[in-house]
């Protein structure tokens, strides 16, 4: 909890003010039964109208004081809770951004979303309640006991009887609640995951007519959530009746003894009324406590889930390193005996891979699906660290570069084009901060998408729907390429990013890219594309089985010859 609640620190003064205001409310609450006793003993019983008026005015004044304190407390409490939630959410988001890919893959996306939404809300609510009422409840209990003891110790002692039992009972319930609500939040993760998958794959779901199936999959996880939430709440709902029974028993005992005391003249009626009033307030505070304990148990479970993220030290990117780029090495890439396996697995996806690319060269990477092409590319911007061997970019081991400098040298187009909600110009200039419209247009022209964009009614201001749904696959791919081209980077990596382009457009794209001095690594399935490259790297099950020009491989690699023959690219 400490890591999460350290985010309250910047708001300690508003929090302290809120707590002080809460004490004002508490003071009024505890003073009221005394005043009622005064009205009875000094006003009603001796029929003294002035005393009734006097105490009435005091009571009215205190009520207004409590009202003002309550409103101001709400203002400060919500300010603290909302600001805390805002800061915590940003800190979590930044922390996730700093994760290495390996750490990132440890958490399902849906779970990260739940942690940044529902979990934060739970904790925020409890913080608000704490400042508003949580501390008040135990203080009302303690204060009521003290006041009742002061009014009439013999009567008040009966109210104390149930307290130890209730405290033990509440501690047990909180512990149980934390366990149960951890399960509930994990169930919520599952609901979010299925929801996310089904919505993302909506076209697939429709095409395969799997609506019913998806609905039942959703129903299953939603029902698990419902069952476990009910289970958790049922346990928690035990708190209230147990509390009431215990407190009412204590009250009955106090009444029974108190009325005997009044009859025998040892106590005044006002004393009895005040003690009963304090007992009622204690019961109310305990019930409030029960309500808060449910929220607290839930928030504790949520806070622990957030701490799982906040407290990760290893597994975040080590960003510091060399910043100076040596001119004579720009755009060079070399793999030296690189072996790689994904963290947590025991299979080498790349084995002893060695090759080099000189400045401005174009390397085509080919191989069957699963051969390790994407994995190889992901080692260049250091998404993962190699298991053995070294990867060099611009003459230096990628591990020694400052991560921002390294990634700044690379334009990366992933296999799946991803567009963000916003305009086309936003999407392309996402690749380079503060890019001018001319730069966006030039990159788009190079990526062969400029004329298509110009033909849209809003041209570059056209809004791209969620995940780019209002654009064709080929258009999305070309916008992704434009986003990489605008960076004017030393190295351009295209991971099968032209698969949706027609032959003519693709040829025009390669022609435009040929004018660049950028070093290019292009994953492709097409021999037609590979043959124009300076070198072709042929991968098979993570091993290099061919490296050379199209002609060299045609004469030296049976596998390449087979691929070329299947695509009728043999002369
Ligand atoms: N995050 C991961 N964790 C564990 N294994 C992975 C992960 N990503 C990929 N793999 C495995 O690594 C191997 C190589 O995958 P990779 O995506 O590099 O192949 P590829 O040649 O790019 O294939 P494709 O042409 O189909 O994209 C595959 O066997 C795959 O199962």
Q: Could you outline the blueprint of secondary structure elements for this entry?
A:
Layout: H1 2-5, H2 12-44, H3 49-98, H4 101-106, H5 109-134, H6 136-151, H7 153-160, H8 163-200, H9 202-207, H10 211-237, H11 239-263, H12 269-310, E1 333-340, E2 350-357, E3 362-367, H13 373-378, E4 388-393, E5 396-397, H14 403-408, E6 410-413, E7 422-423, H15 424-429, H16 437-446, H17 450-455, E8 463-464, H18 473-485, E9 491-495, H19 503-514, E10 519-523, H20 527-530, E11 535-540, E12 543-548, H21 550-556, H22 558-566
Parallel strand pairs: 3-10, 3-11, 6-9, 9-10
Antiparallel strand pairs: 1-2, 1-4, 4-5, 7-8, 11-12
| The named CATH superfamily of the largest domain | ABC transporter type 1, transmembrane domain
Using the 3D structure, state the CATH architecture of the largest domain: Up-down Bundle
Low-confidence stretches: none
**Number of domains in the coordinates?**
2
Q: Specify the biggest β-sheet.
A: 6 strands, mixed
Portion of residues in beta strands equals 5-15%
The order of strands across the largest sheet is: 6-9-10-3-11-12
> What would CATH call the class of the largest domain?
Mainly Alpha
Number of strands: 12
Q: Radius of gyration over alpha carbons? A: 35 Å
Summed up, the helix count is 22
State the helical fraction.
Answer: 55-70%
Average pLDDT, to the nearest integer? 85
Q: Which ligands appear in the coordinates?
A: adenosine-5'-triphosphate
Q: Outline, from the CA principal axes?
A: elongated
CATH topology of the largest domain: ABC transporter transmembrane region fold
Through-space gap between termini: 69 Å
Q: Which structural class do you get from the secondary structure elements?
A: alpha/beta
Main location: membrane
Organism: Lysinibacillus odysseyi 34hs-1 = NBRC 100172
Domain ABC transporter: 333-566
Membrane topology: Multi-pass membrane protein
């Amino acid at each position: 909890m400490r890591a999460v609640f350290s985010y309250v620190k910047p708001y300690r003064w508003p929090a302290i003010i809120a707590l002080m205001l809460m004490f004002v409310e508490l003071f009024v609450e505890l003073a009221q039964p005394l005043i009622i006793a005064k009205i009875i003993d000094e006003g009603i019983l001796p029929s003294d109208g002035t005393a009734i008026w006097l105490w009435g005015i005091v009571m009215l004044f205190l009520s207004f004081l409590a009202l003002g304190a309550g409103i101001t407390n709400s203002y400060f409490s919500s300010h603290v809770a909302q600001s805390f939630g805002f800061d915590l959410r940003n800190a979590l988001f930044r922390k996730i951004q700093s994760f290495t890919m390996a750490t990132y893959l440890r958490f399902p996306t849906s779970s990260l979303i739940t942690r940044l939404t529902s979990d934060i809300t739970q904790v925020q609510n409890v913080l608000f309640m704490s400042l508003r009422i949580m501390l008040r409840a135990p203080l009302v209990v303690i204060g009521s006991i003290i006041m009742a003891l002061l009014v009439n110790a013999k009567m008040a002692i009966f109210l104390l009887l149930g307290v130890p039992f209730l405290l033990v009972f509440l501690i047990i319930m909180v512990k149980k609640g934390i366990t149960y609500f951890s399960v509930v939040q994990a169930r919520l993760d599952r609901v979010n995951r299925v929801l996310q998958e089904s919505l993302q794959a909506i076209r697939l779901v429709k095409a395969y007519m799997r609506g019913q199936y998806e609905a039942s999959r959703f129903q299953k996880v939603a029902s698990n959530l419902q069952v476990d939430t009910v289970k958790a709440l049922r346990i928690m709902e035990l708190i209230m009746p147990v509390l009431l029974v215990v407190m009412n028993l204590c009250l009955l005992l106090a009444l029974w003894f108190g009325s005997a005391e009044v009859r025998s003249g040892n106590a005044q009626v006002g004393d009895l009324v005040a003690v009963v009033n304090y007992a009622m307030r204690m019961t109310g505070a305990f019930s409030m406590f029960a309500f808060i304990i449910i929220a607290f148990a839930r928030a504790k479970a949520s806070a622990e889930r957030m701490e799982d993220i906040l407290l990760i030290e290893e597994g975040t990117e080590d960003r510091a390193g060399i910043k100076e780029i040596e001119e004579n090495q720009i755009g060079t890439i070399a793999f030296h005996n690189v072996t790689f396996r994904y963290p947590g697995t025991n299979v080498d996806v790349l084995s002893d891979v060695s090759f080099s690319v000189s400045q401005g060269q174009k390397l085509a990477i080919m191989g069957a699906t699963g051969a390790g092409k994407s994995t190889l590319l992901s080692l260049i911007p250091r998404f993962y660290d190699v298991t053995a061997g070294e990867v060099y970019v611009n003459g230096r081991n990628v591990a020694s570069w400052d991560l921002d400098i390294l990634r700044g040298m690379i334009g990366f187009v992933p296999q799946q084009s991803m567009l963000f909600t916003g305009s086309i110009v936003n999407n392309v200039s996402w690749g380079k901060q503060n890019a001018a419209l001319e730069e966006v247009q030039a990159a788009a022209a190079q990526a062969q998408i400029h004329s298509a964009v110009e033909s849209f009614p809003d041209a570059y201001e056209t809004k791209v729907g969620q995940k780019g749904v209002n654009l064709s696959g080929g258009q999305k791919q070309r916008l992704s390429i434009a986003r990489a081209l605008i960076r004017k980077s030393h190295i351009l990596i295209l991971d099968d990013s032209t698969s949706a382009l027609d032959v003519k457009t693709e040829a025009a794209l390669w022609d435009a890219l040929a004018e660049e001095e950028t070093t290019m690594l292009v994953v492709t399935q097409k021999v037609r594309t590979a043959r124009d490259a300076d070198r072709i790297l042929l991968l098979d099950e993570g091993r290099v089985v061919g490296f050379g020009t199209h002609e060299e491989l045609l004469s030296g690699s049976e596998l390449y010859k087979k691929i070329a023959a299947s695509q009728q690219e043999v002369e």
